[in-house]
């Protein structure tokens, strides 16, 4: 155990975690030149396409320090705020963290939030000033910021560049010297914390664990303490570039377990694995429940695929512990699931993963935050689907979630950002100059105004020089109304939205306009109306499609035309027939494109 | 086999046209010489050297001089043999011509020595519409072109018309066209392409989009008028007297191999498609230095099925299920059963004697029907 170090790499998004991980893997020869590629640990297609880390990824390295061999378990974590639950679980498996700060950008909102996550778990922090190769690097200023933030010694900060491989030996030495080895009793009964899991279509369900006490042998009978289920540890092993089976794993180790678990629901991250023959007295404390920020319905495009979708969601949930869901029904869309997400990117990723990994084509409905509604009968209801909102005459009052938001930006953009926030019904709480030209602003604002397009707007106003972090505060009474949409007179519950009364007319109008653009014309005219209660507040008419045929189709037109139609067809894949109108996926997201 | 030659020159740019052409006529001769070189380089592209049809398209091939036609035709004769068409008709050699080039009987007689079929770009007989479209001819030349062509010995004639402007103009155009009694008529809905004068006017709001209900109405009028007059509606935009179908164009729709020579010309060898660069100087430079000027795309089974649906459904022959099955390697009917029955219920598609065909109302939605039937 003296020779084990468990650490994670944490930082604000894009500050170079995965790239630095590449250099560590290279230096320790965990990965040969032949297998090396940029951001190697981002091994999901979606991660590579988007250039961001979505999943934490653990990998083991061997490292020789002063003639002794150490086992280093590295966990690369995502930086995007929507995946913070990945970070918090990784932290629970570590004693230390590399905190990276981009030398040209300085500390940003998630630098701070992830740092606090790590400190709350008593991790030793190794500050790394990364990307010092950048022409715009400001090493001295940023070091000042880091010293202020961490209260560390200036000399503790390791200057590095993941791109150029600068600072790699120093970082590895610091990991061994500064991070303590795992504690725990190797002779105590087994207690291993499950911090991730994964469904593999060939090998079944794999769980990723960290042994806190005791040890585990291959083939031994184990028990998951919270579910009470028992399994055989058919295969255990460490996480190299590939999984490497082992016969025995010790206190402090990080590894995987395959044990013929068939039912996805039996695996919960945060559960404790113990030995069946010599069980531990108590489970290790698991993880705090995720608090979803946004909710939306997910429905199969083919109504008959509801059960397949359920199975896919259960399997996906194994690998995405931040996803929560329960069944719901919609008059327009039939059977589906009401899902909770940490943000819009999370929602998008879930939809994509269902499609790619489980071959499910789904429709996601209008996202919403969760309101608390007091009915006239004195009943308190949680409403996260607009369709569940009681009729106005049955509502006493509605409360909406408020968040505490931190925005870090260049001083130049403070004015613009204030304007944006005021427009979003926010209250400025504090304003602190971090340096002469960097400011931290604190707002209290309605979550509903933030989750949708706020971040994009913030980035635009600040030319990219603003970062945002937020946490839930409380629910506050607000004058919210439900905006319904009717197509040819029929209410489509999946298109309803809950909006602030002061903005409802404008929204109704813009929503109808947007839907007119997004719903493809059909062979009959379609009336698109927005209503609050019985009152119609806006209307647009989508004219009938009379003709859909190109004039010419000769030798030179064929392949171009085929591709055009194929592309159109692809766009139509996510369409749901509601009544006799076909509604594309984008229409359900139209609400987000207003403003 | 079939040969297409793209002559990329026009006197002036019509406001609706997005074909590849240049108005710099001084480059015509060197470009024709490059095309001759391309024939030398690529004549073996096709599986045999037997040609059933030749098509001079453009652009405006009626701008070619006798010497230029001579160069091209000599080269063709050197590398190919002309044979009878697939249903025993003599080889079809079509030349696209604009009415303003057909005013002179000497010129017409010259053209007749190189081609036995003319496709005349009349578009409309309405003077103000011709000017609005920036056509190079006037209404009178439009009316006279067919008579003069006949006098020069062209019996096999086709005229092009454009509809979608106004109901009264279209009624008059149709009436006028019928009096000419030509064996073949192509009629196209006016389409506003982005990279044209009309496209730019539309973007600036100087032009309103073509009214779709008007187009639909005029298409129906077109079809019923010409069918009543004894024409067969054998492709969405093409009408012919019985047995006078355009053989060259039919080859495109029946997926027979063709070689395309000249800038922007497309070729098809049965398994892949390719097209030449749509730029005269890049084309000439490429041909003269022997560097590649074409982009090639190999068609997958799904691509082939989709192309067949796209082109086949537009024609009187429809799509043969056995051919679709062979391309797909499984039963098309069972794979697309729900879509087919939905389209049948809508009244757009019929499935008769092992062929899929559009109904009369389905013709207005040919693209929609084809794309719904597309496979992945
Ligand atoms: N110049 C320079 N660029 C770097 C360095 N490290 C990373 N980058 C670039 O910064 C971008 C983000 O790098 P990643 O390693 O994916 O960052 P990350 O922190 O893992 O990002 P997330 O996981 O999405 O939060 C990429 O374009 C990298 O090429 C560095 O040391 N110097
Ligand atoms: S329509 Fe014909 S003549 Fe007019 S520009 Fe196009 S190719 Fe040239
Ligand atoms: Mg990363």
TrEMBL record, chain A:
Catalytic activity annotation: GTP + H2O = GDP + phosphate + H(+)
Keyword Heme: no
Pfam families to which the protein is assigned, alphabetical: EFG_C, GTP_EFTU, GTP_EFTU_D2, LepA_C
Keyword annotations of the record: Cell membrane, Elongation factor, GTP-binding, Hydrolase, Membrane, Nucleotide-binding, Protein biosynthesis
GO molecular function: GTP binding; GTPase activity; ribosome binding; translation elongation factor activity
BP terms from Gene Ontology: positive regulation of translation
Cellular location(s): Cell membrane
EC number: 3.6.5.n1
Top-rank taxon, per record: Bacteria
Record's protein name: Elongation factor 4
Automatic annotation (TrEMBL), chain B:
Top-rank lineage group of the source organism: Bacteria
Database matches in SMART domains: Elp3 (SM00729)
One Gene Ontology term, aspect cellular component: cytoplasm
TM stretches of this protein: none
MF (Gene Ontology): 4 iron, 4 sulfur cluster binding; coproporphyrinogen oxidase activity; metal ion binding
Subcellular location: Cytoplasm
Keywords attached to this entry: 4Fe-4S, Chaperone, Cytoplasm, Heme, Iron, Iron-sulfur, Metal-binding, S-adenosyl-L-methionine
InterPro entries assigned: Coproporphyrinogen-III_oxidase, Elp3/MiaA/NifB-like_rSAM, HemN_C, HemW-like, rSAM, rSAM_horseshoe, rSAM_sf
One biological process term in Gene Ontology: porphyrin-containing compound biosynthetic process
Function description: Probably acts as a heme chaperone, transferring heme to an unknown acceptor. Binds one molecule of heme per monomer, possibly covalently. Binds 1 [4Fe-4S] cluster. The cluster is coordinated with 3 cysteines and an exchangeable S-adenosyl-L-methionine.
Assigned protein family: Belongs to the anaerobic coproporphyrinogen-III oxidase family. HemW subfamily.
The protein's name in its UniProt record: Heme chaperone HemW
Lineage of the organism: Bacteria, Pseudomonadati, Bacteroidota, Cytophagia, Cytophagales
């Amino acid at each position: 155990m003296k020779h084990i170090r468990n650490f994670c790499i944490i930082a604000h998004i894009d500050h170079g975690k995965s790239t630095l991980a590449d250099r560590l893997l290279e230096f320790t020869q965990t990965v040969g030149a032949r297998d090396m590629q940029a951001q190697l640990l981002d091994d999901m297609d979606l991660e590579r396409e988007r250039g961001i880390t979505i999943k934490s990824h653990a990998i083991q390295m061997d490292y020789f320090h002063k003639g002794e061999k150490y086992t280093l378990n590295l966990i690369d974590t995502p930086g995007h705020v929507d995946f913070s639950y990945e970070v918090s679980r990784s932290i629970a498996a570590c004693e230390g963290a590399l905190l990276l700060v981009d030398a040209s950008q300085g500390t940003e909102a998630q630098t701070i939030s992830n740092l606090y996550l790590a400190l709350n778990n008593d991790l030793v922090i190794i500050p790394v000033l990364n990307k010092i190769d950048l022409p715009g690097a400001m090493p001295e200023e940023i070091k000042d910021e880091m010293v202020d933030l961490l209260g560390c010694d200036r000399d503790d900060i390791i200057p590095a560049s993941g791109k150029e491989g600068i600072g790699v030996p120093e970082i590895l030495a610091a990991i061994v010297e500064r991070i303590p080895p795992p504690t725990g009793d190797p002779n105590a009964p087994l207690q291993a914390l499950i911090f991730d899991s994964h469904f593999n279509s060939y090998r079944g369900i794999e769980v990723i664990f960290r042994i806190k006490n005791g040890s585990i042998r291959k083939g031994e009978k184990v028990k998951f303490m919270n579910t009470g289920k028992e399994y055989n540890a058919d295969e255990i092993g460490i996480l190299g570039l590939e999984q490497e089976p082992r016969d025995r794993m010790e206190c402090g180790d990080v590894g995987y377990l395959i044990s013929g678990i068939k039912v996805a629901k039996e695996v919960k991250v945060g559960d404790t694995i113990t030995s069946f023959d010599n069980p531990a007295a108590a489970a290790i404390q698991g993880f705090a429940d995720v608090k979803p920020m946004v909710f939306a319905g997910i429905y199969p495009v083919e109504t008959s695929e509801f059960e397949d979708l359920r199975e896919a969601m259960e399997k996906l949930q194994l690998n995405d512990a931040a996803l929560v869901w329960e069944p719901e029904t919609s008059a327009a869309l039939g059977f589906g699931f009401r899902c909770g997400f940490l943000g819009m990117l999370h929602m998008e990723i879930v939809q994509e993963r269902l499609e790619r990994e489980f071959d499910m084509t789904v429709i996601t409905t209008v996202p919403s935050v969760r309101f608390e509604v007091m009915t006239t009968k004195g009943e308190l209801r949680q409403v996260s689907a607009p369709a569940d909102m009681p009729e106005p005459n049955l509502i006493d009052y509605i409360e909406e979630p408020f968040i505490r938001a931190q925005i870090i930006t260049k001083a130049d953009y403070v004015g613009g950002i204030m304007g944006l926030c005021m427009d979003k019904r926010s209250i400025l709480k504090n304003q602190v100059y971090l340096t002469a030209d960097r400011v931290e602003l604190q707002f209290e604002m309605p979550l509903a105004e933030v989750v949708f397009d706020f971040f994009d707007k913030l980035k635009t106003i600040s030319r990219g020089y603003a970062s945002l972090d937020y946490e839930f505060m409380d629910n506050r009474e607000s004058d919210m109304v439900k905006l319904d949409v009717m197509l040819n007179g029929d209410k489509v519950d999946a298109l309803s939205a809950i909006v602030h009364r002061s903005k409802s007319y404008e929204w109704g109008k813009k929503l109808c306009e947007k839907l007119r653009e997004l719903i493809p014309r059909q062979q009959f005219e379609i009336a698109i109306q927005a209503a609050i209660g019985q009152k119609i507040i806006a209307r647009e008419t989508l004219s009938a499609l009379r003709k859909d045929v190109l004039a010419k189709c000769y030798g030179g037109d064929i392949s171009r035309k085929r591709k055009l139609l194929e592309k159109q067809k692809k766009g139509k894949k996510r369409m749901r027939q509601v009544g006799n109108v076909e509604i594309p996926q984008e229409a359900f997201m139209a609400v987000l494109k207003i403003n | 086999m079939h040969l297409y030659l793209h002559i990329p020159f026009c006197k002036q740019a019509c406001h609706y046209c997005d074909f590849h052409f240049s108005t710099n006529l001084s480059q015509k001769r060197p470009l024709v010489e490059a095309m001759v070189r391309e024939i030398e380089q690529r004549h073996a592209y096709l599986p045999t050297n037997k040609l059933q049809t030749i098509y001079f398209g453009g652009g405006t091939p009626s701008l070619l001089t006798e010497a230029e036609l001579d160069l091209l035709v000599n080269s063709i004769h050197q590398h190919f043999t002309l044979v009878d068409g697939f249903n025993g008709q003599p080889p079809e050699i079509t030349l696209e011509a604009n009415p303003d080039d057909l005013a002179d009987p000497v010129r017409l007689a010259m053209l007749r020595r190189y081609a036995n079929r003319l496709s005349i770009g009349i578009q409309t007989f309405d003077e103000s519409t011709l000017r609005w479209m920036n056509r190079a001819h006037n209404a009178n030349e439009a009316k006279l072109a067919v008579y003069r062509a006949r006098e020069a010995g062209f019996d096999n004639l086709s005229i092009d018309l454009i509809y979608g402007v106004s109901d009264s103009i279209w009624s008059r155009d149709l009436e006028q066209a019928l009096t000419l009694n030509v064996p073949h008529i192509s009629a196209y809905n006016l389409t506003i392409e982005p990279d044209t004068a009309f496209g730019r006017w539309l973007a600036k709001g100087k032009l309103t989009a073509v009214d779709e209900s008007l187009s639909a109405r005029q298409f129906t009028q077109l079809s019923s008028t010409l069918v009543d007059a004894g024409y067969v509606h054998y492709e969405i935009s093409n009408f012919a007297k019985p047995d006078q179908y355009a053989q060259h164009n039919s080859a495109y729709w029946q997926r027979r191999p063709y070689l395309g020579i000249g800038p922007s010309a497309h070729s098809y060898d049965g398994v892949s498609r390719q097209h030449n660069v749509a730029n005269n100087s890049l084309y000439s430079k490429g041909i003269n230095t022997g560097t590649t000027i074409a982009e090639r795309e190999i068609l997958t089974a799904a691509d082939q099925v989709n192309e067949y649906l796209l082109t086949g459904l537009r024609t009187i022959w429809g799509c043969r299920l056995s051919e679709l099955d062979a391309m797909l390697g499984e039963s098309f009917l069972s794979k697309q059963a729900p879509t087919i029955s939905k389209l049948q219920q809508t009244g757009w598609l019929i499935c008769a004697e092992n062929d899929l065909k559009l109904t009369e109302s389905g013709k207005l939605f040919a693209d929609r029907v084809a794309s719904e039937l597309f496979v992945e």
